[in-house]
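Box 3.1. Reading complex inputs
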Amino acid sequence: MKTFRGVVVLCLLAMAPMLGFAQEKPKKSLNIWVDCGLGALIFDETGWAAVVSNVIWDYGITATTSHQSSPDQCGSKNAKTAMYIGATYANLAEETAKGDGKHLHAMLDIMGCDSPSHGSIIASFRSEFSQYLRNPDYAAKALVVKAEDYYNIVQTTISEGYTQQCRTS
Amino acid sequence: MRRVAPPILLYLLLIVRQSIAAGVIGPKADVEALVQQAHSRQLATHPYWLKLMHYQRKTSAGVTTQLSEIVSSEFFLSPEGATNPAAELAATLVAFFEPVGEKSDTHAQCRFPARYQWLRKTLDWGSLEPPRIHCQQYSAYTMNDQIDSLSLVYVTGYPTNPASFYGHILLKFNTRRSLVATDLLDHSLNFGAAIPNNEIGLVYMIKGLFGGYDGIFSHQHFYSYNHAYVENDLRDMWEYELTLTKDEAGQIVSHSWELLGKKYVYYFFKENCAYRMAELLGLVIGSPLLPDVPWALPETVFEYIAVLKRNGVPIVREIRWIPSRQNRFRGGFLAMADHQRVLTRQLVDGPLDFDEVGYKTLPATEKIAVIDTLLDYYEYRIITDKKNIEFKRAKQALLIERAGLPVQTSAPAGDAVFSLDTAPPHRGPLPTMVRLGPIHNSQFGAGSELRIRPVNYDRLELDAGRIPNSNLTMFDLKTVYLDKRLRIRSLDFVKIENFNLPKTPLPADGGFAWDFKVAYETQNLACSGCMIFNLAGGLGKAAQLTQHWVVFGMLDLFAQTPHQGSGSLGALPHIGLLASPALGWKSSVILGRQSYLNGSRANYRVVRWENRFGSSRNWDVRVSYEEHVAHEFLAAVSLYW
């Protein structure tokens, strides 16, 4: 069952470039959530995480297709991070509130952040995230929106203070 | 005197020369010599080569041949590779010398690294140097050769999906921790059937049983499986880290790369995930990991591997529990002091008020325990009811509260093992059972009963390593010798009972008890030759009075083939008690009334009192009394393996 689900996701992602990039303007900057098919195409609220294949990291049956048919930037660390956040958002939100946890460290590993810097990076976006949580609309937001917001909080934190510690290319 | 080459060698050399003639390789004579060397060493019949190619011996019309279980043509480099080990070996050696094209990852060295490594070790290559290739995708798969060890992971059974009743197996590649901080980013291997979405249940069962699906190895990062099984399906995982050498682990990893995406024929009962994972590990583990029976169960692999030693060293280094989200909140709740539990219950039942005195006066560490438990609890509620906004609001409030408390990681999951009475799969019930003993039937007099059950456990068996008090049996055959005749009493094709008991007093922990049965059985205990087909299912509720006492009430509905105007539809409401009054004694009592809704509209009292004596995994003594038109007593000994 899981195999087939993985194949379904592969097909969706293989289609994403055909559907999205055919209309892309040359100068437009890449929006990972939209252009790499990481948005509503995959992240719905109905147990999508169970079907999220490791599409970008998958070097086996799915990788050859997704690598060949996706733009380089969709295989970037940013895209991998976005995929990971989408898959593990509930855990990340909890661990961010707690201030530590293995999902957080795994995310920072994906982003290429040095291990010694993890603690201070987490502390930085923990305070940002706690502000974000106070948004009255938070509970009603779709999972994909929460994940994207979280991604932006983390990226902003790193770009504003930790570019030396993290290689996010 | 000149030696004459045997025909098979001439044939192989012809293959090599055809390849050379096609201009794909350079040092013609040397490659020919390598193929000759492989032939003279009989490598094509070497057990390792046969394992790498997944050949099985087939005999037809008195002729024995080899046939690979892999049906994907891209797994073979020779057109005859599926049936000819020597031709595939020759073609493989030739392919290793092919020039590197634009895509190095498609070169034979990159596609078949296990074959390459083994042939490099086994043959004398002399001065022969195949092209040096950097296999980018394979290198990424092996994390640049940074895989330190392997873990076999058991995913506990999932009662809502028939294909997952018996659990599942994954193989996790443990990357060096200095490279990645946690195992969430480790690669993990999966084997399963490729099933179309929205497959109809009956079609699914039939095709699964009779080879209608492809079976495929795939891989993802461990976080994906963790999310799918532990977080979404609420299933525990048990990780068994193995003591394989780095070279042995490397052989498994490289061969798994060769297998990714290649198709097998999938059979639910035998050629399933347990079978393929055991087969893969069999590449380096000399001992069998499954018995030679017509079925393969995931937990059996763990049963075997847990006791396996090599040179006196256990093959399992460490066993780690990965609790489901549901068991995390249960474990967190049970690990707290009484006053924290009471407070937690108040916060769930009433408004989530953190200004409440009982909470405000707690020290921070105790607040953290309460909030972390509630975070797990409300995430569990969200998973089971995704559209409920109130649960999401509660979780939002908890996240805000938690973000204002000090940084502190949760207690290790292992702490909850004891409070939840959880045990790894190798300590669970042994699946195969035979039971024999005397019976006395009020209609037919004295006799005997012989019962054979291939899988898996009934409600009275030892509770460790399974859902306590549940029943999960298939092809459970009960025969009786009564009135000087041997006859079938019942054949349960499948029988499942799950009491769905809560482990905490928090709302929605636990749920409806349910059962389901498909059987061929006697109409009642008083008749002879009165076999019927019976399809039954029911809902009810169970409650745990104490640790050792469970009461339940169920309403079963059934449809059967009528017998002598009995009716074909009916109901069986019943109440029951499950108890463990003393160590080594477990008892089950059921009182009910079977009523037909059509036909005769007759109704009968049903009483069943069953007892298990003994605490061994290998045997027990059963004593039972049953009333269904006639009365019957049984005293029997059961053996398990």
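In summary: The two ends of chain B are 61 Å apart (CA to CA).
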